[in-house]
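As promised in the previous annual report, we have extended the structural survey to additional targets. Below is the entry for NADP-dependent succinic semialdehyde dehydrogenase.
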Amino acid sequence: MAITSINPATGELLREFPPHSPEDVRDRIEQAQRAFLKMKDTDFETRAAWMRKAADLMEADVDELGKTLTLEMGKTFEQARAEILKSAKVMRFYADRAAEFLAPEELDDPSSVGAKKAYTVYEPMGVILAVMPWNYPIWQVVRFAAPTLMAGNAALLKHASNVPQAALYLDEIFLRGGFPEGAFRSLLISSSAVEGVIRDRRVAAVTLTGSEPAGRSVAAIAGSEVKHSVLELGGSDPFIVMPTADLDEAASMAVKSRTINNGQACINAKRFIVHADVYDEFMERFNRQMADLKVGDPMNPGTDIGPLATSSGREDLIELVEDARSKGADIPVGGTVPDGPGWFYPPTVVTGVTPDMRLYAEEAFGPVAAVLQAADAAEAVRIANDTTFGLSSAVWTNSDDDVEFFTRSLDAGAVFVNGMSVSYPELPFGGVKDSGIGRELSAEGIRAFCNVKSVWRN
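The corresponding structure token record, generated without further manual editing, is:
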């Protein structure tokens, strides 16, 4: 069955590609293994030069590649360009910092372990498989690939099947930068073929960004092979607004945080928990700004919201909204599927959300905001934590007491105070509970696929 690239703004078939055969897959794994044997003996300076060259090439490709991302998954052209430039930034970040992050660490007092010298070294694991989603087709992959390659590993990519053009671009960019052939290879395969790749003896570990069911499956397979896994499985992030917040800034950022990438980001704010004392004031601003967003052609500079990436994704979103509507929720903004081609869905605000509605706890992957009201900080935390997810969170307040309370009390991998949840190369990224295990980015991200080896010498 062909792997297809479809324009979500029109439903038009752009291109189709034959999947890699089992023989192709075995050959690419072998290429990666051979490349790893070269990579592990290459110094940081050499790897860094290759990585910087690849970043330069990606930046030079920004307009053409940005158009491909927009046509293939529907994000606005402006946001596609921003994704590509951010990806080049993380490539340079690890080129500059890998040697520091993986430098040997000496024990201050080796005599405490009966040695003359004791230290820790970080060594590459081998061939690492990444199973990646479509919503950030370049960024999600590069934030894995940059630290993985800079650590001296080789990488395999099983990308989402609806972004094959992005996968094939990534198949070439690191080779163009100078990395050995096979150091990074894309596999055009179905999800059913992933298990065989994980179980291949030449694959040392796996990482997945995607749905919770997919993460459980991959982790179970990796665990049965005693292989390391890192999982980022999405979230239903709370955005809490307290009485001392700057409501103009909070509302503006709430709209951006809910709708960036057409509302299809794991760290989009999804549930808006607003203190009763400022609920009406905040909602007047929020509803007005959500209603003002322009939906349309993602290549048009005036468009704020493009289509959802897949027809099935839109159907899932419709079901969540209709479930809430049928159970008494109010929908002051949006909530109606537009006529015409493409998989568009309008910015939508759902208020009066209750625990019996699916939107209360499930992740809405699209521009739909679930709004809840809280009487105080304690209730806000209770609502925020009343989900199986725990990726990131945002709190809007100018009270130091609030900051201390929410930072301590929220079940999340990150807390952003008076700002929008964003992934930065400098900060660890990942969640708790069903949002995953392990961390990406920062020093944690490059050490995730290293063997931490202790050396004791007398």
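The mean pLDDT is 98. The first helix runs from residue 22 to 39. These points will be discussed at the next consortium meeting with the crystallography subgroup.
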